[in-house]
Amino acid sequence: MSFAQQVIGWQREHGRHDLPWQGTRDPYRLWLSEVMLQQTQVSAVIPYYERFLAKYPTVEALAAATEDEVLQLWSGLGYYARGRNLHKAAVEISRHGFPKTADKIAELPGVGRSTAAAIAAFAYGERAAILDGNVKRVLARCYGVAEPSWELAERLLPNREIQAYTQGLMDLGATLCKRVPECRTCPVKARCVARKTGRIAELPAPRAKKAWPWRQASWFVFIQERKVLLERRRSPGIWGGLWCFPEQRPAGCRVKAKLPVIEHGFTHFRLRIQPLLCSGGSQKSGFWIDLDDAQRAAIPTPVKNLLHELAGNRHATRR
Which of 127, 144, 166, 196 is most buried (CB neighbours < 10 A)? Predict the structure, then answer.
């Protein structure tokens, strides 16, 4: 029995079958789920996916929304460029229709080769290879290679049942072939080179660990009569398009108190933020937003957490 047949057979009996984006050939729903799943766990994606579909049941509805509305719904999911690209792609799709091949899907904003292949396989049954992080781990261990190639991924493709095979690879990497694998129930354990040679911990080759640099920022926090001053960040960039506290000190403002330092990690650096509770000065940029409304706006998680703390602090919200 081939590798693909073993994966397909296992997926039918033991794979995941109850995810909200399964059981459909709708490219819009599949595209939405695959973009959300980039670098994000299934458990975190499901509630966002369901909220997006409830508000934007079609790609035309998503295209008709504003970027701010989309980012507001995306708030908390992270990697906000995905939300901005999702909206850009929706506008493009609403004008020209959804692409019909993996190559064309990969041309959409924010969609790479593996994501495009997954969408094409599930929506159109295209025989296209995926090679995301989970799949790389499965192939690296099974075939004893430090870095699986696209050539290997394509060579393993079955001629039939591409949807079950693609889902099976995803499920294997997510549920069994994890960092600490559950080899006992793995359908390809008999052919796994890493298991036979005791190299499970070595494969795939770990990325060299880097000491991510620290960056510093100050937030100037203005609150009066339960309204807060926020600015929309420029796009592209960190938290591009989202609402945040001002980082430039307004002329003449007075710092009343230093709030606890906030530390937040990004892909390639860490950010240490010093929030400063301020009053006075000329706030020429930004908008005053009701504190409760601000917590529901398109804001990054650290801003949301600080707003929540401030909302419960009566002293801080007094003028």
Answer: 166
